[in-house]
């Protein structure tokens, strides 16, 4: 598996505006905020099933209503399309509970 080049990363990241690329370009990161712990945990449980099906597992951290996610593909030594696909699925799972702009 090969890592995404900088141009492809920029292009694919336009569809993930809430995610940030680390300085080296080897990972992406996003923090999700939920109304409460149960919804944060539910999101993690839902994405755990996605992760198993994709055979692609995030680095994540949870405190109460916050889930911080970092994605990288170790086999590629950087970002791959698997990270973009996982992030896209996470954004879709989060959309129903995401705070709405007034």
Descriptive overview:
The protein has 102 residues and is α+β, with helices and mostly antiparallel strands. Helix content is 39%, strand content 19%. It has 3 helices and 4 strands. The protein has helices at 6-13, 37-54, 81-94, and strands at residues 20-21, 28-33, 59-63, 66-71. Strands 1-2-4-3 form a 4-stranded antiparallel beta sheet, with helices on one face. A hairpin with a 2-residue loop joins strand 3 and strand 4 (66-71). Helix 2 runs antiparallel to helix 3 (81-94). The longest helix has 18 residues, at 37-54. 22% of the residues are buried.
Show the helix and strand layout.
Layout: H1 6-13, E1 20-21, E2 28-33, H2 37-54, E3 59-63, E4 66-71, H3 81-94
Antiparallel strand pairs: 1-2, 2-4, 3-4
Brief account:
With 102 residues, the protein is of the alpha+beta class.
* Elements, N to C (H/E): HEEHEEH
Supply the number of helical segments.
3
Beta-strand level of the residues, as a percent range?
Answer: 15-25%
How would you write the strand order of the largest sheet? 1-2-4-3
Sheet with the most strands, sense and barrel status: 4 strands, antiparallel
């Amino acid at each position: 598996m090969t890592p995404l080049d900088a141009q492809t990363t920029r292009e694919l990241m336009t569809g993930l505006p809430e995610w940030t690329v680390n300085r080296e370009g080897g990972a992406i990161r996003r923090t999700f905020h939920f109304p409460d712990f149960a919804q944060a945990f539910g999101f993690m449980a839902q994405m755990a099933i996605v992760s198993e099906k994709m055979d692609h597992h995030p680095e994540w951290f949870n405190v109460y209503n916050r889930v911080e996610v970092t994605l990288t593909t170790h086999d590629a030594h950087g970002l791959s399309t698997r990270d973009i696909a996982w992030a896209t699925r996470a954004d879709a799972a989060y959309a129903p509970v995401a705070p709405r702009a007034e």
